[in-house]
Amino acid sequence: MTVYKIAGSSTAVAVALTALSGLPALAQDGAFDWRAHEGETVSFLANNNPWATTVLEYADEFEELTGIELAVDSYQEQQMRQRLLTVMNARSDEIDVFMTLPSREGMQFAAAGWYHDLAEFAQSDVAPDYDYDGLSRALLDAATFDGVLTGMPLNIEGPLLYYRTDVFERCDVAPPTTLTEMRDAAATIAECEPGMTAFATRGLKPALPYTFSNVLHNMGGSYMADGKSNLCSPEAKAAIELYAGILQDYGPPGVVNYSFYQLTSLYRAGRAAMSFQSSNEFPAVMEGGDRLEDTGIMPLPAGDGGSVPTAIGWALSVSGFSDNPDAAWYFVQWATSPEMQARLALQGIAPPRSAAAENPDYLAWLEEQPVRQEWQAALGQLADTGSSEVGFPIVQNPESREYIGQAVNAVLLGQATVDEACAAADADLNALIERE
Q1: Statement: the pTM of the whole predicted model exceeds 0.90
Q2: Which CATH number is 159-311+380-434 given?
């Protein structure tokens, strides 16, 4: 855990930084004043993922622009969630702004009143060049529950298959076009390169549904049918068997503890031939440059149900218990502005505004490396055909993910057959659904 205050610098430096970056300054007509909340403090609970670590590199500019002091509390994802639950269950004003995944906890948090409605802010108290209408309508809709806009989109992401082109060539393996071919490729690579992990993806119980959902949908499965859990359908059982089986046979030791951090470290170090993980990890995967020349990227290969990639996005929210939501909104709109998103795009954070993706500087950045172009092309497929269903579409979505992960882990660890694991999960999930 890191806890820090972001210190400001001189006003002269701020003016220079604003001019260089294109970040919005004070509105010339006086209708919007970036310094309207000068002297106030905004507390930000951050998930230490690529978006947060990158945007906070520019936090001193926010303080210079607004005169608002930013207090940052940053944790790894699971610890961040625990901290947020503690504070929000106490209805404390300790947190003003936090990161959220609407596809995961949006319905649950909205029902509990944990979000401040940002719709009015976005229409009335906004910098002239914010371009609210330029944000992805699909992501805005996904963050809206019962008419409450719970957060502003930060990125668009989903799991992608990163694979070592040099290893595939050395082992005479073609890039897979189906899930069956992907498993066959893992088998061949395991024999050809016995010292390398052939295939890796998430195994950590609460994190696993993010990647498993793509396998489920590609196999033609769904989480629910006729208002009941559907994990024992033939398609879902095939997905569990494939996911658990490929990790059991070809995954890294201790994979049940793997989430994004472990996957990124393993692949970046050159110790995995295939890694099915978040597109959002692209900058971290490429850090140091070792993987720039030997990596290919694609959506997960198709299964019997075709190709239905997972597409979600993080959002930045204002707490429903914040004592200063107006100042908090200023941080939200600065952090999600077109200019900031164009900046972050140049560091591999996929923008939720189409205009940022079409920025000439961003297009030039893509042209510098073929792997960047493959990454953007794969993201385009996610945006066009992706599903945001990760876990069960119910208020208790976060709890539903625990049961999904538990079922896959039971098979992966040899503790249950697929039939036993899905039946146990269905019983727990149907009880959860009935409590809605």
Answers
A1: no
A2: 3.40.190.10
